[in-house]
């Protein structure tokens, strides 16, 4: 039997100094190329789970294996995991194309290869006309598109999406959810989407799971 | 009248070409100018090297004692420079008690607060998500700092650096105590030429050179493009990894200890004589007379600075005409550009003949102190006044309040905190003011800072210890005022939220 692409086992998270756990004994397995949506109410610990997977927050207990490798204690920059945060957080001192190229520069890609990949990614999210734009002048939807392109550009093994469409108006959310699904499928990337919107989850993901169902009730 | 006129008088005196160019042709003056510049440059780099990590520790994560330690870092900035000079002279081994090294270290100690405040306030607004994103895109911690943090902090680092450079370039109190006669600075030379040698044209020429360098620095560093960032909620340090928590705790403790250590050593020194423990250096009547003179002058100076400073700040904040508020801002910034000794020299030259013959007037010194404090008062009140939404005042007017009632019930309530901080700032600046006081103090009405300077210039263990006790008294007064205002503000805030 082959091991799952992402294997989260008995993960617990407790804020140091506080007596109660945010969650405990959380387990999840994801296959390669699968897009999984985790839904649950605000404050249940969905975002904390994503931060633990990508290494920004340490887990209190449990393990995270990616492609069979234990990454529980690896530094975030060594994990090759991309993330789109709620609010996008594009680097404000860089242009649209410089934002998308950031991860490629870190990978030390050649200038030509960077330019080619940036173009490809901006095309994918329909933002190729905006490459030299100052990110301060982008709308909410455009910002989200660039954030997705930036996260996908270095071809991460796993993409985490933390409520990426929150704060956008209804129509735009529906359109972007569709576009996001296309972009993720085209990239053949394994992804976890965290959201509280059931419709959004269904539009983007292959599989939708309730956050509470991931926790073993011992 | 009390800023521009004296400045113009000083400038007009220097248009004696030979004095002006003498600074370049005279090897000793040239050497002095070079020393002033490089010690200011090294002091600035040193302040940034220590201030940036301190700003990082105090502005990235929320932890229990953060606010208290942040307030502590401000203590050296309100301490009189001459007090810090004495503290560093008594801390250093005998062979390092004077010269460039202790002077640079004292400057670093004095100015760390500038970096912590200016850069720290910006750093607090930098969302951690920027660095998180960069890390996830493959940036190592160093690359992350270089490519994300540094560019976004650049404007504040350059701003803080230029302020520190100007302060260190115009050093006087610390330089008088620490640099020694072998290493004069431009400010001590202005004083020497004006006061001891009576060579006013040469003193004025040095003021012009000082102005030239300061304006050059301002011209090179102003108008830094800055991306606006909104206030962020700080992440709790407790949610970070243990190694990071340990690093931040140790660093925060070091900052607190490093801030208080020089004052604590100074205080224990003031209680020791050959015969052991003693309070005798604290019991001299001269010290307490000078202290009460200082308090009354500081009170007068603080009231004056607050009146003119608040008026100017409100004019800047309420004005919709850019040119007008730029003019007022430039006018009230003049005392930063023109140093305290130069201002004192301006007062000596400008107010010595009828109808403005005010030489020896008892009120001239507090007026000079208020002029020195004015830019700080304006800089504290203006941003707070700008943040008050005019709609609040308009609502009050629509609800039947008169313009005065509307201003009192809305604006004044928002301004109480900055007003209290500005008043305490002006008060402490006056308490420790040494530059203008050196030239304007009347015999028999010496402030504590002046008495301290006089004691230091005389030999003898007894007098040196009295100087140290005076320095402690000044330091404790400044700290007490800062703490009283901080707690009064906190208390008022708590009362309002209850």
From TrEMBL, chain A:
Family annotation (SUPFAM superfamilies): P-loop containing nucleoside triphosphate hydrolases (SSF52540)
PANTHER family documented for this protein: PUTRESCINE TRANSPORT ATP-BINDING PROTEIN POTG, SPERMIDINE/PUTRESCINE IMPORT ATP-BINDING PROTEIN POTA
Organism taxonomic ancestry: unclassified sequences, metagenomes, ecological metagenomes
SMART domains: AAA
Location of the ABC transporter domain: 6-218
MF (Gene Ontology): ATP binding; ATP hydrolysis activity
Gene3D superfamilies referenced in this protein's UniProt entry, alphabetically: P-loop containing nucleotide triphosphate hydrolases
Record keywords, A-Z: ATP-binding, Cell inner membrane, Cell membrane, Membrane, Nucleotide-binding, Translocase, Transport
PROSITE patterns listed in its UniProt record: ABC_TRANSPORTER_2
Coiled coil stretches, renumbered: none
Native source species: freshwater metagenome
Protein name stated in the entry: Unannotated protein
Database matches in InterPro entries: AAA+_ATPase, ABC_SmlMolc_Importer, ABC_transporter-like_ATP-bd, P-loop_NTPase
UniProtKB/TrEMBL annotation, chain B:
Residue ranges annotated for the ABC transmembrane type-1 domain, each copy included: 33-221, 291-485
Pfam families: BPD_transp_1
Compartments where located: Cell inner membrane
Membrane topology: Multi-pass membrane protein
Keyword Transport: yes
Matching InterPro entries: MetI-like, MetI-like_sf
Keyword terms: Cell inner membrane, Cell membrane, Membrane, Transmembrane, Transmembrane helix, Transport
Record-given protein name: Unannotated protein
Keyword Transmembrane: yes
GO annotation, biological process: transmembrane transport
Sequence intervals crossing the membrane: 40-59, 71-94, 100-120, 152-175, 203-221, 246-267, 287-318, 330-350, 362-381, 414-432, 467-489
GO cellular component: plasma membrane
PROSITE patterns assigned: ABC_TM1
